[in-house]
């Protein structure tokens, strides 16, 4: 009864979002559902709640206190979608007829909520992580003389983008990423050791050794040798564990490399041989959080679809159940919308 109206597999606790209320953001159990209403502008049904102790009602849109209330939900959604096509703030402001600073504020708000949301859902359920691939993408910061690297952790079986870290190409950055991933992985006893593959960068080895101290894992480095840009040899080098622990045909880093391509196309800061590289690190982080939500929770991933066993007898036969990475990970049963992110009751500190 006290649960939020979610399609999530976790229970998120309701709280009072009204700032003037003395129970603001306290996780009191006195918030209950209280009907629904529709506005004339958009036909979307809004859930109403009642704050028992404060004795007032509020709408689920109250949980969307992210970015000032100078736009409509439709505009927020459009802004989010445009951001994920790699458009700049100026371009989005032009399309939506807003000030660039307004769009920047909205983006900051949404990315912060996407970040908190990701942490909350990943920490609420012990993720079943079987196979991690890690890689780093190269970009610039401010000018083409200073490099910025994006370290990415990726779960292969569910295609779940676990987390990322921005920084130099050092052990320090890799350790930060591995530490975050370590928080998400449960300390459950596993049947098979956790499989990890990366390229030959020593930073991963150091990071894994220092962080994964009580996790049983097998670590494989894929060493690629290139001569004049052409791939000559691929050497597989077991740093921890042996071939017996690592069965199957997946002794590669192909999945994350394919994912890197997706990301390079969606985040304009990562597009190569352009002048679109990042001028401010915070904007880069924002763009990545947008894309993390989009990729994990909104988009159906084609290789994750499952065939329908019961044939659909309607005229347009449905053959597949489409899934998002978050669904494959068992965090939810449905794909989310941007609107869902806005109205999910999660306190975000500003
Ligand atoms: Zn209240």
CATH-level-4 superfamily name of the largest domain: Ribonuclease H-like superfamily/Ribonuclease H
Indicate the percent of residues in helices: 25-40%
Find the CATH topology of the largest domain.
Answer: Nucleotidyltransferase, domain 5
Bound molecules: zinc ion
Oligomeric composition of the shown chains: single chain
Main beta sheet, described? 6 strands, mixed
CATH class of the largest domain: Alpha Beta
How are the strands of the largest sheet arranged?
Answer: 6-5-4-7-8-9
Distance between the termini: 29 Å
Treating each run of at least 4 consecutive H or I residues as one helix, how many helices? Answer: 9
Radius of gyration of CA atoms, rounded to a whole number: 22 Å
Strand share of the residues? Answer: 25-35%
Q: How would you explain this protein's 3D organization?
A:
The chain has 350 residues and is an alpha+beta fold. The chain has 2 domains: 1-63, no CATH class; 72-350, Ribonuclease H-like superfamily/Ribonuclease H (Nucleotidyltransferase, domain 5). The protein has helices at residues 73-83, 89-96, 100-124, 171-184, 202-211, 254-266, 281-298, 325-328, 338-343, and strands at residues 31-38, 45-51, 56-59, 131-141, 143-155, 160-167, 194-198, 217-227, 230-240, 301-307, 320-323. It has a 6-stranded mixed β-sheet with strand order 6-5-4-7-8-9, sandwiched between helices. Helix 5 links the parallel strand 7 (194-198) and strand 8. Helix 1 (73-83) packs across helix 3 (100-124), helix 3 crosses helix 7 (281-298) and helix 4 (171-184) crosses helix 5. The chain is globular and about 65 Å long. The structure holds zinc ion.
């Amino acid at each position: 009864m006290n649960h939020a109206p979610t399609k999530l597999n976790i229970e998120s606790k309701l709280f009072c979002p009204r700032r003037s209320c003395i129970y603001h953001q306290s996780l009191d159990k006195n918030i209950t559902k209280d009907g629904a209403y529709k506005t004339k502008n958009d036909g979307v049904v809004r859930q109403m709640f009642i704050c028992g102790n404060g004795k007032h009602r509020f709408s689920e849109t109250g949980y969307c206190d992210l970015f000032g209330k100078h736009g409509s939900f439709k505009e927020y959604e459009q802004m989010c979608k445009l951001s994920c096509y790699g458009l700049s703030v100026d371009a989005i402001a032009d399309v939506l007829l807003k000030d660039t600073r307004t769009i920047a504020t909205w983006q900051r708000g949404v990315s912060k909520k996407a970040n908190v949301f990701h942490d909350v859902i990943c920490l609420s359920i012990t993720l079943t992580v079987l196979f991690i691939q890690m890689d780093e993408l190269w970009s610039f910061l401010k000018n083409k003389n200073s490099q910025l690297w994006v370290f990415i952790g990726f779960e292969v079986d569910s295609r779940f983008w676990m987390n990322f870290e921005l920084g130099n190409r050092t052990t320090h950055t890799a350790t930060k990423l591995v530490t975050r991933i370590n928080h998400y992985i449960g300390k459950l006893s596993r049947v098979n050791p956790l499989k990890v593959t990366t390229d030959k960068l020593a930073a991963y080895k150091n990071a894994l050794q220092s962080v994964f101290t009580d996790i049983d894992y097998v670590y494989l480095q894929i060493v690629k040798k290139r001569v004049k840009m052409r791939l000559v040899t691929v050497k597989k080098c077991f740093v921890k564990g042996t071939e017996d622990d690592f069965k199957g045909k997946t002794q590669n880093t192909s999945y994350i490399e394919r994912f890197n391509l997706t990301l390079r196309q969606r985040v304009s800061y990562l597009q190569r041989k352009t002048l679109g590289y990042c001028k401010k690190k915070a904007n880069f982080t924002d763009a990545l959080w947008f894309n993390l939500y989009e990729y994990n929770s909104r988009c159906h991933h084609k290789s994750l679809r499952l065939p329908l066993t019961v044939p659909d007898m309607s005229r347009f036969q449905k053959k597949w159940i489409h899934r998002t990475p978050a669904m494959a990970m068992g965090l939810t049963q449905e794909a989310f919308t941007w609107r869902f992110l806005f109205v999910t009751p999660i306190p975000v500190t500003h």
